[in-house]
Amino acid sequence: MTDRRTNATGEPNQEDEEVRRGQEERLRTVWAAPRSWRYWSAVNNTEVGVWYTAAAFGFMLFAGVLALMMRVQLAVPENDFLSATFYNQVYTLHGTAMMFLFAVPIFEAVAIILLPQMLGARDLPFPRLSAFGFWCFVIGGVFVCGSIFFGAAPNAGWFMYPPLTTNEQYTPGYGPDIWLLGLSFIEVASIAAAVELIVGTLKCRPPGMRLNLMPLYGWYVLVVAGMILFAFPPLIAGDILFELERMFDWPFFDPSRGGDPLLWQHLFWIFGHPEVYIVFLPAVALVAMIVPTFAQRPILGYSWIVLAAVGTGFISFGLWVHHMYTTGLPSISLGFFSAASEAVAIPTGVQIFVFLATLLTGRVIYSVPMLFVSGALAIFVIGGLTGVMVALVPFDWQAHDTYFVVGHLHCVLIGGMLFPLAAGIYYYWPIVGGRRLSDKLGRVAFWLMFAGFNLAFLPMHYSGLAGMARRVWTYSEELGVGMANFASSIGAFVFAAGFLVIVWDVLRPRGKEAHARRNPWNAGTLEWLTEMPGESWGVRSVPIVTTRYPLWEQPNFIDDVDKGRFYLPDAEEMKRETIITSVLDGEPLQCLRVPGPSFMPMIAAVLTGAVFIFATFHWWAATFAAMGLSVASIIVWLWRGTAEIPEKAEKNVGLGLKLPLYKSGPHSIGWWAMFITMTGDAMAFIGLIFGYYYFFTIHADFPPPAAVGPGVFWPGVALAMFALAWGAALFGGISNRAERIGTSRALMAAGTLTSLAGSAALLWGPYVTGLDPTAHVYPATVWVLAIWTAVHGGVGGLMLGYCLGRSFAGRLTPAHDVDISNVTLYWHFMGGTALLTVTTLALFPILT
Amino acid sequence: MTATRLALSTTFALSACQGSQTAFDPAGVEAERVLTLFWIMLAGGGAIWAVVVGLGFYATRVAPEQHSEKAGLRLIIWGGCGFTTIVLAALLFWGLKMMPELRRPADGPTVAVSGEQFWWRVAYGVEGDPGVVRNLPMGGVPSANEIRIPLGQRTEILLSSPDVIHSFWVPQLAGKMDAIPGRVNRLILEPTEAGVFNGACAEFCGTAHAQMGFRVVVVSESEFEAYVQAQAEPAAVVDSAGLDLFLQNGCAACHSVRGTPADGDVGPDLTHLASRRTIAAGLLPTTEENIAAFIASPDHLKPGVEMPAFGMLPNEQIAQIAAWLGSLE
Q1: Of the residues B49, B77, B102, which one is the last residue of a structural domain?
Q2: Which residues form the signal peptide (chain B) (predicted)?
Q3: Residue A752: which residues within 8 A CB-CB, separation 6 or more?
């Protein structure tokens, strides 16, 4: 018995307008942002992405004001507009805020807005994680930036070279601590975003979108998020060593006790150079979306540009020493890194030529976004060419640490990132605001920015070679760079005026201005399915995608999506849902229930932030209290919001397809998130291990004879305990799945206890052998590795305890075992960590 | 003879603070070669820029219509891949080939230079150890903020620091090299002209980083020998009120004046202060007025400087100290 509301297979009849209206009503209700003060509990990408972007631009404007203050100070020789001490805070905070609070977060922010739209997904897989990242970012950013109003800002440059920064004698006050702890906290947010975006691109593509059909933006997101995952953790490792030295006098960078200031430079630039590409590639990604639209043809050389992006990502990890050409390293290393630094220009060149070739073979329509793309090309190529110059060792010996480098890096960052971003703002604003920005204001903004930029930054190349070192708060008249600096200062203000025109264009009251028409640029990719103004559900139904530009290449596509003729056209159970597909082929695997609004991410971020902020001021009791509360809040969040057992095993998502609502193991997004997070975690651990072997290479007596400590016995006991816990996690999961609940619970309990015992034994080794971490770099290195692994053992124990609790609460059952399966994965990493730690600490001293 | 020397020294005194610091006017082998390299790279880079931007302008503005895909793909392969690879390989080859040449061992004297917050400690007549060393040999003839080197020889500068990282840079002579605590780095200076060349600290090292300059004075070999010998002598001390005040007010806690009881080791050696062109690390010409002004209020002239102010002393006492220091040739 069928009526007109259902079709032959019993599914709703999408051709019936009334059916559709009902579906739309439900979707709208389910995906609506909460109202009034609860608005701030929103977690959906459309809200969090916009907040994130706005906050990043806020920090950018703040850092821009700092830049203008510097330009006023340097406009004429021997000026006294700013004092030396204040200038040093201003330039440090300018660099820090632009890099950590704008350039990297803006990538995450824009990707959170655009990625789900481009993939035809309703949201990213972990919206609450995005929200957590956003709140961490805002709290950390305000903390770091706010310090300047108390004259307590960091004041030694954004790369913070020790021993200037590690020693209270040279940098009294809280400046370096604020930098380290505030930014470590933000790095956590960045890694959270990276996890979210990698799982998003790999698992949330629409059915049919094989990896080689993914929009180029998706590829770039994947590459950049992967780079964050490998680049940020070494910096976190560096931060740990740095803060231990600064707070507790552990001498990692103090040469008088065996440390070495260069270790920091290695760890910082292993992060810092990929960072440049982490900033640059997302902007190229925007260009890769804009160019085909205005050429009105698909990108020419899709595989070339994908390979080039991946290649750039890889090579960028082999360049870091080109920031250290003047540190006296052997010529042979300099030669190697010089070659790698030149090599990275090849994939960069390929990307530029792919755009040129696409424009050449298309029928180009010129508009404001293209204007900014052209400006970006003109400026970025200058930066690229001066980059090729400074990659050459002998030239860098002259140019290094001068205004030549300041000019170069601003060409790369502003030409390579800010201009494409401005193009992106003009291109994508209709998706966010429902209206187009003004063409006229756009052109005014462009020409002000373009002229201002060149006037400000081209003369700096001259100033640098004329003898002006960077980071100087004043310069003498006789240096002969007064005119060049005056021009730079004028240019900076013109550039700022241009940017303010964009800000005005975005914020100006619109009155009754009409909405843009749908797909206003006649683009070919999924994000332009967005209605004007946009609906909170994102996409009316999740489409089947078989081409790279479905709006151009799949007939009747928009109408099919709008009429709900694809998947998930309804929200029958009033739950937020999206489709999870397989990594390579985009085959539908699961209908994922996505969590909705919650204050828990914000609360967890506030408490985690408190840990870092209290630690900055050495309020240890408060720090430990906040630590306990933040762990508790995360447990509450996970307990109530994750791995929920659905009311039924599977559901019909449309077109006769039934998908499970619950998945565990390698097909689940949680497993992937754990895998990716632990990869990042392992990278940080490798950063610390690198430190140990670095000291081995520079000292003949490192490690000292095995008798010094931590000995073999206690580390051995620890390893045995961790191995037992590892086994308990593995067999706990297996016996749970085999419905031997009792055995499984016993194993989880045993695993909890043995891992805690293992952590204690690992710490007992250096303690009982009397290793004093302040005496020399060897005991300090031993302690830091032992503590890292012991903390991970503690967390692993806590996780097994959590699974035990979930089992008793009926939230972990033989059929619904996400928790224990992810914890087992954690333990695989933990097992490796323990093995490497104990081998290094206990066996290596015997072997050498 | 004396007249010429007098005339010479006046010229030097006048040009003391007008020495130049620009890499565009090289006076050393390394600086010359790097400048040539720069001009060639600039010309080549300018041409590449014009072609790439011109291509973009052509594709979007001049001839926005469609061109063949085959031509487009060829552009990617030959322009993006082929051309860049060839040009970069050639450039790299040239750049790497320069290095062993520039880093050849020295054949002249060795000078130890220690970057300290915020001045340069100098020692002549030290022995460089070819192996890896962690500390500078500072036993030789001490001086500060002015380095004399002989023309026609390759002088080795040994660099380190007891506090934070500094970087030693004389743009007219050569590129820069860092002075890093716990390491000794080497830099070769091979001047091609005599003259005074300004140097600066290039690595941010604290509040007064911008005012941590120095002078390199290139002289003939014989003048260099004579200079080091003169510097090795103790000060020609005349009993003066200035010396007494210098000792009474604790200046000797930080400064040495060899030949007097002043043997402090924290700040610059002042034994031959008046023979140096500048005071306060390249900041001001060495005149009695400048010395007096600096003693009275060093932080005003050089914010962040480690030396405490002695403005509480009566002006005439400061003037007496300055007059005495100004006589230490």
Answers
A1: B102
A2: none
A3: A725, A797, A798, A800, A801, A804
